[in-house]
């Protein structure tokens, strides 16, 4: 039997901070300010969900986008959403400029350059976005470095695990392109893509009694693309059922595309908004976190300012699947 900790290297980044601690805000201790970059389909859906569900932990949501009309529309409409006679119950929404993006506790990166159009044949949509989005997130990694950002950097754009690493590396590069460790700490960055894969696996488990054990004993690990790992059960792992459920989960988004729609609602809600709120509240959630030199998706929570993994004894066949996905991510980063 092995655990996720067997994947991680016992290493520190160059400024001496442990891979397992960071100076960012302590989860669950106060109402926070959240800034969202890019108000496309995903960003605007995340905004709506955080507005409606996050009043207990969020006091203000800042929005930023190149489309000024979209920003004005969202500022007007979001601030006209209120409970009667309890007008401060939901977070206020305000427009923020690029220069003020990191004057917040939580920065949410929803910007993207490479979403495949409906009808376009792409085998792995998230990897198709990697090259375009890597350059984009690197710009904001450098911005975070310049202002000495001490908050939380949440990556929602695909592929989240690889973009987390790109944000980390870019923020720690000096003007000559040398890594100096003076940027973001590893634990300041998490990627939010795995939550929807868990929800999709649960969707199929509710509809096929062969997978029902997933609802009480199942887990998901790794990236939310081709190397996703769905375990039908931690206690009574069945390799064949797990592989079948994994395939259903990985291809679930294609079912929506076949209907002529972009499958962004479930990811924006399950992976991003719900998982972000669980993170801020200090509750267990799915996200990509730094395990050694790789951001890897698993169940975890923020305890004070540290990441606490769910430590499970993993059956050998399951651990081999996880190790293979971990190695593949390391080769891509």
Provide tags for this entry:
six-stranded parallel β-sheet, 11 helices, 11 strands, globular, alpha/beta, three-stranded antiparallel β-sheet, 333 residues, 38% helix
Structure description:
Helix content is 38%, strand content 17%. It has eleven helices and eleven strands. With 333 residues, the protein is α/β, with parallel strands linked by helices. It has helices spanning 41-53, 68-78, 125-128, 130-146, 160-171, 194-207, 214-217, 239-250, 252-258, 265-280, 316-332, and strands spanning 32-37, 58-64, 92-95, 106-109, 152-155, 189-191, 219-221, 229-231, 285-291, 294-303, 306-309. Mean pLDDT is 91; it is low at 10-21. α4 runs parallel beside α5 (160-171) and α6 crosses α8 (239-250). The protein has a six-stranded parallel β-sheet with strand order 3-2-1-4-5-6. A three-stranded antiparallel β-sheet has the order 9-10-11.
Ordered list of secondary-structure elements with their pairings:
Elements (H helix, E strand, L loop, with lengths): L31 E6 L3 H13 L4 E7 L3 H11 L13 E4 L10 E4 L15 H4 L1 H17 L5 E4 L4 H12 L17 E3 L2 H14 L6 H4 L1 E3 L7 E3 L7 H12 L1 H7 L6 H16 L4 E7 L2 E10 L2 E4 L6 H17 L1
Parallel strand pairs: 1-2, 1-4, 2-3, 4-5, 5-6
Antiparallel strand pairs: 7-8, 9-10, 10-11
Helix pairs in contact: 1-10, 4-5, 6-8, 6-10
Strand order of the largest sheet: 3-2-1-4-5-6
Q: Which runs of at least 5 residues are low in confidence (pLDDT < 50)?
A: 10-21
> Count of helical segments?
11
Along the chain, the helix and strand elements come as EHEHEEHHEHEHHEEHHHEEEH
Strand content: 15-25%
Q: What is the terminal separation in angstroms?
A: 28 Å
Oligomeric assembly: single chain
Mean pLDDT: 91
Question: What overall form do the CA principal axes indicate?
Answer: globular
């Amino acid at each position: 039997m092995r655990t996720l900790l067997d994947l991680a290297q016992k290493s520190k980044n160059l400024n001496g901070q442990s891979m397992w601690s960071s100076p960012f805000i302590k989860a669950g201790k106060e109402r926070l300010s959240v800034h969202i970059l890019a108000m496309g389909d995903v960003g605007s859906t995340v905004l709506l969900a955080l507005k409606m569900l996050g009043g207990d932990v969020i006091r203000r949501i800042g929005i930023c986008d190149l489309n000024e009309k979209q920003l004005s529309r969202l500022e007007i409409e979001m601030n006209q959403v209120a409970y009667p006679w309890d007008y401060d119950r939901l977070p206020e929404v305000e427009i923020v400029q690029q220069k003020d993006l990191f004057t917040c506790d939580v920065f949410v990166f929803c910007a993207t350059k490479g979403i495949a159009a409906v009808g376009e044949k792409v085998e792995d949509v998230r990897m198709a976005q990697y090259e375009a989005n890597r350059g984009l997130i690197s710009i904001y990694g450098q911005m975070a470095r310049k202002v000495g950002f001490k908050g939380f950097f949440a990556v929602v754009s695909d592929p989240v695990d690889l973009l987390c690493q790109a944000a980390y590396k870019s923020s720690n590069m000096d003007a000559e392109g040398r890594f100096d460790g003076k940027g973001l700490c590893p634990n300041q960055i998490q990627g939010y893509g795995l939550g929807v894969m868990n929800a999709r696996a649960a969707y199929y488990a509710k509809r096929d009694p062969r997978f029902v054990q997933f609802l009480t004993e199942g887990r998901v690990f790794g990236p939310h693309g081709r190397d996703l790992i769905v375990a039908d059960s931690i206690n009574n792992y069945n390799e064949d059922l797990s592989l079948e459920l994994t395939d259903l989960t990985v291809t679930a988004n294609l079912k929506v595309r076949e209907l002529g729609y972009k499958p962004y609602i479930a990811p924006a809600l399950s992976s991003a908004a719900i998982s972000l709120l669980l993170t801020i509240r200090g509750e267990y959630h799915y996200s990509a976190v730094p395990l050694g030199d790789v951001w890897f998706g698993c169940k975890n929570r923020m305890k004070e300012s540290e990441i606490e993994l769910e430590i499970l004894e993993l059956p050998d066949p399951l651990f081999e699947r996880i190790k293979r996905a971990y190695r593949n991510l390391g080769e891509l980063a």
